[in-house]
Amino acid sequence: MVSKKQRLASVDALRGFDMFWIIGGEALFLPLFALTGWSVFHFGHGQMQHTQWHGFSFYDLIFPLFIFLSGVTLGLANKSLRGLPVSDRAPVYRKAVKRLFLLILLGVVYNHGWGSGIPADLGEVRYASVLARIGFAWFFAAMIVWHCTLRTQSVIAVTILLGYWLLQTLFGNLTPEGSVNAWVDQHVLPGITYQNRAYDPEGVLSTIPAIANALGGVFAGRWLAHHSGDHKAILKGLFMAATVSLLAGFLWHWVYPVNKELWTSSFVLITCGCCLLLLGIFYLVVDVWHWKRFTYIFSVIGCNAILVYLGTSLVNWQYSSKSLFGGIAAALPQQAAGTFLIACGVILLQWLVLRFLYKRGIFISP
C-alpha cells in the first residue's frame, strides 16, 4: 500500500539489516572470538542471545524492529479511510484481513504445524507466533491510522502503554507463572504455548503493547514524509525522539522492568528508541550519503523479509553450506576457521537466492 515514490531505500536496507541476523549473522561472533581472542566478539556473541527474563540485549530488538518498520510504511503512505463510502473501504479491509490471516497461517507453518501429525489435533497447534504478532500489530495499527486523527493515534499509543502497565502490576506480578499474561494465555489462548510454558512469549495479552511499537513506526514514517527532502529536520527529529524514548524507558525500567517475554511497556519504549536511532543512522548513510553498496547488500534481504524468515525454519541451510564448503572447512588448520566458513556459507547461500529474486523483481509479501 506504499507507492514506489514513498519508499525509502533506508527503510528497505534497515529491514534487511534486521533480517541479516536472522539468516545467520548471529553465528559469526563466536568463531571470530575463537580465532582472534578479541573481547569485542565475545561481547557481540552475548548480545546475540535473548535475555532470559528482565533486561535487554541487541537480539531482543530484532522482532520489535520488524514491527516498527511495518508501521513506518503505514506512516509513509499516510492513508486515511475517514469519510470514504463503504464501497471504497471494503477492498482495503479485505486485503488487510487477508494479510492478517495469512500471517497467522504462515506462523503455524513456521512452528511446523501440528505436533501430533495427521489426523490433526487442533489442541496441539501453537497458534501464537512471531508472524501472527506482526500481523496483529500491523492490522490494528492500520485500523487506527486509517480511522483516527494523529492526535487520537498518539492518545491510543499512550493509553496502551499505561493501561498495560496497570494491568500487569495490579492483576499479577512480573514472574513467569504469576503474571497476568500467563493467566490470560492459559484461559484464552487456543492450542499450546511455546515449550508448554505457563505463558506464551507471543501470547494474547503481550500482543497489545506491540501495537504501540507499530504506532511508533507510524509516527516516524509520518515525520519522514512530512519533512521529505529536509535531511537536517528528519535527522534531528529522529535522534531527539530516540533520546527521549530511551531515557523514558530506562527510567521506567527501575519500577517496571524491561522484559521481552512479557513485552512490558518499558520494553516498548527502549525498543522504539533503538529503532528510531537505527532509522536515523540508516537514513544518514543510505539516503543522505548514498552508500549504494551498503544499501544493496541489505536491500536484497529486506525486500523479501517474510520469505527470509520462513526459510530459516523450512530449509536446512546449514546442511547445504556444509555440502558445498565442508571440505574446505575441514582442511583449514583451526576448527573455528571452519565453523566461521560454514556460517558465512549459510548467509551467502540465502543471499544469493534472495538476489536472484531481487534481480527479477520478485517480491513475496502477504
Automatic annotation (TrEMBL):
UniProt entry tagged with the keyword Transmembrane: yes
Gene Ontology molecular-function annotations: glucosamine N-acetyltransferase activity
EC supergroup of this enzyme: transferase
Organism lineage string: Bacteria, Pseudomonadati, Pseudomonadota, Gammaproteobacteria, Cellvibrionales
Keywords linked to the UniProt accession: Acyltransferase, Membrane, Transferase, Transmembrane, Transmembrane helix
Protein EC: 2.3.1.3
TM region(s), chain numbering: 20-41, 61-79, 100-118, 130-148, 155-174, 204-225, 237-256, 262-284, 296-317, 337-358
Entry keyword DNA-binding: no
Source domain of life: Bacteria
Protein name from the UniProt record: Transmembrane glucosamine N-acetyltransferase NagX
